[in-house]
Amino acid sequence: MKSKDRDAIKAMFKKWTVMADRMMDGDTVGKPSNNPLMPPVDTGESIGLGASKLTITFGISKSLMKKIGLSSKIPDAFKDLPHFPNDQLIDDYSDGDIMIQACSNDSQVSFHAVHNLVRPFRDIVKVRWAQSGFISAKGKETPRNLMAFKDGTINPRKSNQLKDYVFIDDGWAKHGTYCVVRRIQIHIETWDRTALEEQEATFGRKRHSGAPLTGGKEFDEIDLKAKDSHGEYIIDKDAHTRLAKEANTSILRRAFNYVDGTDDRTGNFETGLLFIAFQKATQQFIDIQNNLGSNDKLNEYITHRGSASFLVLPGVSKGGYLGETLFD
């Protein structure tokens, strides 16, 4: 943030509410100007593309709340993320005061949304970091990461699960959620040289179907006690799915693949996962990541490079604005 002026930031969120609503309807960010000697109100790169199912999600960090004098409103459940085992974080992909997540069926529509939200307020905000990502899946199928495994199989889906694990119950942030963002580099060339059997043992699941190695279909329960004829656990003690399950909590994963060219030194692809998790308390993610950090077999093939956490603002009622319960 360039500004610590609470009133100016409140006014920005009010304008963002209207702008986001227009863009999600497939409209321009504002009414066109009749003066051709002035820059256009809307940058125009989404002309003719429609809404493309655009959604825009806004989050704020603890650092923003402190900067604008609202430390007293920081919920107890909004805990700082510790330094996890094997973290190799880069400042250029970490932290930030405000999160804007724009998702659509057209990456140009998504960029247009963020571009037009930031553009009028460059005296207040500047972009700290940005990452484009993509998901490819048919219908309601679980999408795959660039390691070819399904990502998000065990997400909470039922309304009672979302209530128990995702949405905040009370206080000014009721119906909001906490968002953890991790930029994870995938060492894809190393993974490419790994035998399929070892790949599946790393995740604890079949690559093609997503089913647990203990049998069944993708969404069947994992049997962590199952052993083979030699008395060895079918799902290894350091398998990703076992360690995540043993944390005994749940988060809503929304992960996006990214490809950022190549490494000039090695010629390797710069590939990875923009891992986004939603939960009703950041401790849920902390518990899972602490379990994965030291022991996860997957760590041989990935490196965590970026990290941030935000409180996703509750939805807006008719006539209201983003952050209304925070500012008023």
TrEMBL record:
Any GO molecular function: metal ion binding
Q: Where does the Dyp-type peroxidase N-terminal domain lie?
A: 2-135
Under Pfam families, the record lists: Dyp_perox_C, Dyp_perox_N
Q: Which UniProt keywords apply?
A: Heme, Iron, Metal-binding, Oxidoreductase, Peroxidase, Signal
Recorded hits in InterPro entries, A to Z, give: Dimeric_a/b-barrel, Dyp_perox_C, Dyp_perox_N, Dyp_peroxidase, EfeB/EfeN
Q: Which GO terms describe its biological process?
A: iron import into cell
Question: What does this protein's record comment on cofactor binding?
Answer: Binds 1 heme b (iron(II)-protoporphyrin IX) group non-covalently per subunit.
Main site of residence?
A: other
Q: Cellular location of this protein?
A: Cell envelope
Which residue range or ranges hold the Dyp-type peroxidase C-terminal domain? Answer: 142-316
Q: Which cofactors must be present for this protein to function?
A: heme b
Give the enzyme's EC designation: 1.11.1.-
Example GO CC term: the record gives:
cell envelope
Record family assignment: Belongs to the DyP-type peroxidase family.
Its biological function? Answer: Involved in the recovery of exogenous heme iron. Extracts iron from heme while preserving the protoporphyrin ring intact.
Classification via NCBIfam families: Dyp_perox_fam, tat_substr_1
**How is this protein named in the record?**
Deferrochelatase
Organism, per UniProt?
Staphylococcus aureus
